[in-house]
Design brief:
Keywords: Coiled coil. It comes from Caldicellulosiruptor saccharolyticus (strain ATCC 43494 / DSM 8903 / Tp8T 6331). InterPro entries: Tcm_partner. It is a single chain. The protein has 12 helices and 9 strands. The chain is of the alpha/beta class. The radius of gyration is 19 Å and the shape is globular. The chain has a single domain, classed as Rossmann fold (3-Layer(aba) Sandwich), CATH 3.40.50. Helices cover 46% and strands 17% of the residues. A 9-stranded mixed sheet has the order 3-2-1-4-5-7-6-9-8, with helices on both faces. Helix 2 runs antiparallel to helix 12, helix 9 packs across helix 10 and helix 10 runs antiparallel to helix 11.
Length: 302
């Protein structure tokens, strides 16, 4: 299925790429001002870098936007490390070729441009002890994008490992459609527990026991427990962005996690700009504050 995903870029994918890229550029501008050591962009489910229809995906968009921003490039030269990983060996090989081609094209446009940063491409399954060991050893700010096809590979422990680092943040794909269907499935309880935590999962199941609960209320309950867990009981910021189908049902979320109020402010602004637009194949929406979602009214005074 993930091979078919890269046949053609959807409007929803364009928005996801824009959210990640716009925030990364803003984050990199800020971090490079305060940090003199290595700065890391990490994508652990990177894909081939291009769709079959010719559109570029997140890795090449990140690369292109960074290389073409001359002021930013001057600040991050010899600092920035890009690390792309995918379990699919074919994707890794395609990405390597696509990056070579993209960099050569940009070199021609920007004449005399030497590679200003390091790029690593790896081929590990997720979750991976090898990947986690590398992340633990990284001594520098990192912005990490986690975009699995399903939900395997996303865990609270991995997000904690990232966000607990100095000036580090994480944005990831939350497959609501698949996850909500798995909450009462004991065959995948171990994987689902990595997302909600064992105690929170039990609490979530109790809250969802009412068979008459409306689908919207069910979604809000799931989101509430999820955000409570990933925010460490509201001691850090979690900002969700909802993607809807044409029938108004939720497909998935993109979730941003940060320790810093400025990060929350910037991401909310980026998400708000991309909200409530009608597009082919569905629509996406920024989640406004609501009494039902206590985590969204949290002002960060801690």
């Amino acid at each position: 299925m993930d091979n078919e995903f890269y046949n053609e870029q959807t409007d929803l994918s364009k928005i996801k790429i824009k959210l990640v890229t716009d925030y990364f550029i803003a984050w990199l501008n800020i971090i490079s001002h305060y940090w003199n050591g290595k700065i890391f962009y990490i994508d652990l489910f990177c894909g081939p870098g291009c769709y079959e229809d010719g559109n570029i995906s997140t890795p090449l968009t990140i690369l292109e936007n960074t290389l073409k921003n001359e002021k930013l490039l001057d600040k991050v030269k010899n600092k920035l490390v890009l690390w792309f990983n995918d379990k699919n060996k074919d994707f890794v090989e395609k990405l390597y070729k696509n990056i070579e081609r993209k960099f050569e094209n940009i070199q021609r446009e920007l004449k005399n441009l030497n590679s200003p940063f390091q790029i690593y491409i790896t081929n590990y399954e997720m979750p991976s002890k090898e990947i986690e060991d590398v992340i633990k050893q990284i001594d520098g700010p990192m912005f990490v994008f986690l975009d699995p096809w399903g939900y395997s590979g996303i865990s609270k422990s991995l997000v904690d490992m990232i966000v607990d680092k100095k000036m580090s943040e994480c944005i990831f794909f939350f497959n609501y459609n698949r996850i909500q269907a798995a909450i009462f499935n004991n065959k995948v309880v171990e994987t689902v527990s990595e997302i909600f935590g064992e105690e929170n999962l039990n609490n979530l199941r109790k809250r969802l026991q009412n068979s008459n609960i409306y689908s919207h209320d069910k979604e809000m309950i799931i989101l509430d427990e999820f955000v409570k867990y990933f925010s460490n009981n509201y001691t850090r910021y979690v900002v969700p962005f909802c993607f809807k189908k044409e029938n108004n049902q939720t497909s998935h979320y993109i979730v941003f996690v940060t320790k810093h109020p400025l990060g929350q402010k910037i991401m909310k602004s980026i998400m708000a700009q991309e909200s409530n637009n009608n597009i082919t194949g569905g629509y996406f929406t920024y989640i406004p504050s609501s009494p039902q979602l206590s985590f969204l009214t949290y002002d960060g005074t801690w």
